[in-house]
Amino acid sequence: MAVAFSPGPDPCPFILPHFPPRGLGPFLAPRREDALDFGPLEAAYDYDAIRAVLTRDVIEGREESMWRYRELLPIDGEPTVGTQVGFTPLVKADRLAKRLGIRELYIKNDTVNYPTLSFKDRVVSVALSRAKEMGFKVVACASTGNLANSVAANAASAGLKSYVLIPADLEQGKVLGSLVYGTNVIGIHGAYDQVNRLCSEIAGKYGWGFVNVNLRPYYAEGSKSMGFEIAEQLGWKLPRHTVVPMASGSLLTKISKAYTEFQTLGLLDANQPFTIHGAQAAGCAPITAAFKRGTDIVKPVQKPETIAKSLAIGTPADGYYAIHAMRETGGAAEDCTDEEIVEGIRLLAESEGIFAETAGGVTVACARKLIATGKIPANETAVLCITGNGLKTQEAIIGKCGEPRLIKPSLREFEELIAGEVAADAAA
Amino acid sequence: MRKMTNDQELVQAAGANVGELIDDLDKTYPGMKERLCDDNGNVRRFVNIFVNDEDIRFLEDKATAVKPGDEISIVPAIAGG
Questions:
Q1: Which of A113, A167, A188, A276 has the fewest CB atoms lying closer than 10 Å?
Q2: What secondary structure letter does DSSP report for A68?
Q3: Which residues of A touch B11 (CB under 8 A)?
């Protein structure tokens, strides 16, 4: 019978360690000693050299974007794609804190990240800047939507040709939010994991730069910028708890790496403990399930079924590492139902004026459980990573937030409509 | 892995199940098993093997039966997300 070998690391350019000319940047190394196991490559840096040049003052003197931490991002030269990405608001969320029953709460608000309203602009900015350095003319991705939007927009602005491959049943906002940039959208009849596998097979064969296949070690490092910003925006200290949504598990792993790197570099108190918690939707929770079973063997979910489509990865590439990051920092993994996701979206919107996509609902709902069960103690500080904008996943909440009340343009009708409310307000 | 197969992306192998196929591949292309399986003989964490498009972890792992004409794909699992 026929055995087909997908183009794996061998023919891909990233397998070669890359030693940057400036002597500060990273090279890529296998994450563990066994380089034979096809495990992910990890960017490694010369922290002694970086420590000598990267201080709080230097960072604060730079433009407010993710590239103010550029020594810790894996490109050789200056960024050329997505130079204005990042430095999104860290919002002190007192009203939501009260609703969830915690003393101090912050929202890292990537619903307003530039240019495509999700944290994916961070990873794409690194991946495409690196893709240009490596000479790729065509860039591509496997995506649940947000990544496709970001690759399409950033490739357009960089003059790169792009292909985005997505499951055919994505939300309209995410499909249109790719098409508008003139990219090549290819809808696959299948789940994300099947899209992903197809992209692994295409990547080597066509020599395209797939941001989350053959450029993934660079791409994934972009997520660290979310962690760097949280620490800086909190006044150069770490939150005691951070809650992160998990799809592949990469964002959680990289936020943990970011905190550790800042401590290693002396930019933060190295003795301050931090705890990272992970959030998934119950309809696709392979990482949370493994965590709760007490193992690091992640059993794939064959048919993800959740409204949180951006988190619906049944075979999470970084699940193993996310579980270790949570365990090593004393964190926990949680999951929530679709109903709880909608409640989470509404709770965040009604208490803080932030409209998050379904993944944000997952994060809020899981944080609520972590606080209620004492895994995040009520007298401590937490940051919730809100990674995408609700305008892109409107289908998830249509009909679940009420309807507008319709009247004629008549003062009489208006007064009839609100008479009860006015009376109630007066009595209150 | 293609370095081991002289750059062929499609090769033939024989066996009654996935485990036997891997052993057979290793005979033809020495070192192949070490790349695909860990010291205990289990398929490595970051290697995905599909029999006719189905992940063997949803079937019977290395004991998954194969028959002549089946297509087995070996794909590194480091992509996505």
A1: A188
A2: G
A3: 2-3, 5
**Is residue A279 packed enough to be buried (19+ CB in 10 Å), middle (13-18) or exposed (0-12)?**
buried
Q: CB-CB: which of A4, A9, A37 is closest to B9?
A: A4
- What is the model's pLDDT at position A67? 98
Q: Which domains does chain A have, with CATH numbers?
A: 90-116+223-396 (3.40.50.1100)
What's the pLDDT score for residue A32? 53
Q: Which residues of chain B neighbour A193 with C-beta distances below 8 Å?
A: 80
- Are A288 and A278 in contact, with CB atoms under 8 Å apart? yes
- CB-CB neighbors (< 8 A) of A197 in chain B: 48, 50, 73, 75, 79
Question: Is B38:A36 a contact under the CB 8 Å cutoff?
Answer: no
pLDDT at A188: 97
3-state secondary structure of A244: strand
Helix (H) or strand (E) holding A152: helix A146-158
Report how far residue A423's alpha carbon sits from residue A408's, in angstroms, rounded to the nearest whole number. Answer: 22
**Do A279 and A244 form a contact (C-beta atoms < 8 A)?**
yes
Average pLDDT over residues B9-38: 92
- Give the Cα separation of A156 and A69 in Å (integer): 25
Stated pTM of the model: 0.90
> pLDDT confidence of B76, banded at 50, 70, 90?
confident
- Phi, psi of A69, deg, nearest 5: -110, 35
ipTM of predicted assembly, 2 dp: 0.74
Q: Describe the strand order of the beta sheet including A333-336 as a list of residue ranges.
A: A90-92, A104-109, A381-386, A241-245, A275-281, A333-336
**Distance between CA A225 and CA A392 in Å, rounded?**
23
Q: Distance between CA atoms of A151 and A133, rounded to whole angstroms?
A: 16
Look up residue A83 and give its two tokens.
Answer: 């130079």
Give the domain ranges of chain B.
18-76
Domain B18-76 = CATH 3.40.309.10: no
pLDDT for A21:
35
Show the low-confidence residues of chain A (pLDDT under 70). 1-27, 29-37
Cβ within 8 Å of residue A404, ≥6 positions away: none
Instruction: Compute the distance between CA of residue A90 and CA of residue A43 in angstroms, rounded to an integer.
Output: 27
**Cβ-based contacts of B21 with chain A (< 8 Å):** 1, 3
Q: How large is the C-alpha radius of gyration of chain B?
A: 12
Residue A428 is predicted with a pLDDT of: 84
B positions 37-76 inside 8 Å of A (CB): 38, 44-48, 50, 55, 57-58, 66-76
- Angle (deg, nearest 10), helices A146-158 and A172-179: 10
Question: What is the least distance, in Å, from the CA of A299 to any CA of chain B?
Answer: 8
Are the beta carbons of A5 and B25 separated by less than 8 Å? no
